[in-house]
Each structure stands twice: as structure tokens, then as C-alpha cells.
Design brief:
This protein has 316 residues and is an alpha/beta fold. The chain contains eight helices and 14 strands. Strand 12, helix 7 and strand 13 form a beta-alpha-beta unit.
Length: 316
């Protein structure tokens, strides 16, 4: 029995591999990875160093744009070859589409947004976020096979360990019912992706007007980082296309500064892997202070401009 995993990028692959390796400790078997795309050999080489048993590389021009029908055919082909009973993808929009197609083709259950798993009374229990991150569900799936979509950020990235064999495969997918005409990358809120930033400045309801986000952006620029918003400002007010939190983007920067954010579970679950958390809030009882390494009790409209001023002075 094998666990077969697929992810889309150098950033998310180590996290998905980590989740698969944790699952292997429970159910056994080997972990194989599949890299699909065009000009993705370097990605395959990096994945091969993450502790997997083998890496299957499908590097063809027709896979330069994500087509879920074509990708699912490739994954099913390799899954049959390695006798994979567990298929794991990343739980972004593409992975969730694949999850549905793969489970339908295999006639097995699928669980999206998985953040953990355990055995209980001899049964596998899978944990996933529900209700926009406000709760965590525990689910079982009957049958021998399962498709899991692991949420990016749920597992610490796997470290380099050995170097697995890379097996090249050329897959002919045949005629497809779906033709992808155009693919547009997801819009980001700031100048850089939150997932890639070593410093992130987050803003919550303590920021009263959209134009006041300029001081948040300025602080991020001074620190050489990215800025983002809590769910209410992004989803409810429409100030950004995505938000920081378990139901949006999970981050793990070296420094996270939470400004005017109360610290609800759906937000703190998405920042828990940050190395250092600094909270700025005028409410001394705000839950965010329970998660922060450092806290400043004060009005963001007074603290942030002064912080920007001091940082600029230090930088000369």
C-alpha cells in the first residue's frame, strides 16, 4: 500500500509531504510524490530530498496550464501503478477540484481542509476546519481508499532527508472534455505573497477606515514585509481578496504584528506557526495577548505612526 501525494509549488510541497509522512507513521506503507507540469524537473529534484520513497515526474508541455481533467488522469494512472490507497493533494481551489474528481473516479470518500489526524478505538479520525474556520470537525471515512486535501500551513514543512529516485513518466491523456482557455493567478493584497513573507503586518477591526490601511502598508514597507487583514475586514468589508486565518491563508513568518486584531480562534489558528507575534490592541483583555510574545496596550492610531517613525530613525 502506498500514499501518493501531489502539490503545485515549491512552497507547499514540503508541507504536504510532512502531512503524508505523519500519516505513514499511523498506517504504514511508502510515500510517493508526483510532480506534474512543464519545466518542473527542478521542483521534482527538491521534492526527492524531502524523505519520500519515489518521485514520479510528468513533465510535458500540455500540462503547463492546470486542467483538472488531465491532471486527474495522470494521478489515477500513477496511483494504480503504486497501489495507492491514500491520495493527498493540497487544499487550495485546484486541489479541492482534484479531490472531488479523484474520489468520484475511485468511488471513495474525500475530506478537504484536513489539518490533522489520529487513531481512536482502532479507527482513523481526520480533523478539518469548518464554518469558515470557526470550528474543527472530526470525521471518519469507510472503505479502503480515501482522498485527502491537506490545508497549506497545517503541517510544518518537511526537512531534507536523503534523495529519492525520480521516475519519469510520459502520459497520454487522450481527448479531453474540458479545455482551459486562460489561467489567471490569484490576486494578492499587497506587494508580496503573505505565505512567502518573513515579516507580516496584520490589521483588524481596530482600523476604522479603509484609507487608514496606509499606515499598515507603510509599516510593512519599512520592515520589508507583507500586509494582510483579518477576516472581517477582508470578507465582510471587502477591503482585500483574502485574509489571514485558518479559513483564509495560514502564515508562518519570522515576525507577525497583529494590529487591532482581537484574536479569535479562526485567526490565531492561522498564525500559530509564526516565530514571534507582537500584538497592538487598546483592549488589555483582548485574546490576542494570550498568543503574543510581546504586547503593546494602546490605540493603533497612536502606536503605529510612532513605531514607523522610530523604525525609520533606526534605519537612518
Amino acid at each position: 500500500m502506498s500514499i501518493l501525494i501531489h502539490a503545485f509549488s515549491e512552497r507547499t510541497f514540503p508541507e504536504i509531504v510532512s502531512g503524508a509522512l505523519e500519516l505513514r507513521k499511523i498506517i504504514g506503507g511508502e510515500v510517493c510524490a508526483i510532480v506534474i507540469g512543464h519545466n518542473v524537473e527542478e521542483l521534482a529534484k527538491k521534492v526527492a530530498k524531502l524523505g519520500v520513497s519515489r518521485v514520479y515526474l510528468v513533465d510535458q508541455p500540455e500540462f503547463s496550464i492546470f486542467n483538472p481533467e488531465a491532471y486527474s488522469k495522470v494521478i489515477l494512472s500513477i496511483a494504480d501503478e503504486v497501489n495507492a490507497k491514500v491520495l493527498i493533494v493540497e487544499s487550495d481551489i485546484r486541489g479541492k477540484i482534484l479531490s472531488g474528481i479523484l474520489s468520484g473516479k475511485l468511488g471513495c470518500g474525500a475530506i478537504n481542509d484536513v489539518i490533522g489526524f489520529e487513531t481512536r478505538n482502532g479507527k482513523m479520525i481526520y480533523k478539518r476546519v469548518i464554518y469558515a474556520g470557526r470550528a474543527i470537525a472530526e470525521e471518519e471515512v469507510s472503505g479502503d481508499s480515501i482522498v485527502l486535501a491537506i490545508r497549506p500551513g497545517a503541517f510544518k514543512a518537511a526537512e531534507e532527508e536523503g534523495e529519492a529516485e525520480i521516475v519519469r513518466r510520459e502520459v497520454q491523456v487522450g481527448e479531453l472534455a474540458t479545455i482551459v482557455e486562460e489561467f489567471k493567478p490569484k490576486e494578492i493584497a499587497g506587494e508580496m505573497r503573505l505565505e512567502d513573507a518573513e515579516v507580516v503586518v496584520g490589521a483588524g477591526r481596530g482600523i476604522r477606515k479603509k484609507e487608514d490601511l496606509e499606515m499598515i502598508k507603510e509599516l510593512a514597507r519599512v520592515l520589508g514585509g507583507a500586509w494582510g487583514l483579518s477576516r472581517p475586514l477582508a470578507a465582510d468589508y471587502g477591503w482585500a481578496p483574502i485574509w489571514i486565518g485558518i479559513s483564509g491563508i495560514s502564515i508562518k513568518p519570522k515576525l507577525y504584528i497583529a494590529i487591532g486584531i482581537s484574536g479569535q480562534p479562526q485567526h490565531t489558528s492561522g498564525i500559530r506557526d509564526s516565530k514571534i507575534i507582537v500584538a497592538i490592541n487598546k483592549d488589555p483583555d483582548a485574546p490576542i495577548f494570550q498568543f503574543a510574545d510581546y504586547g503593546i496596550i494602546g490605540d493603533a492610531y497612536q502606536v503605529v505612526p510612532e513605531l514607523i517613525k522610530r523604525l525609520k530613525e533606526l534605519k537612518g
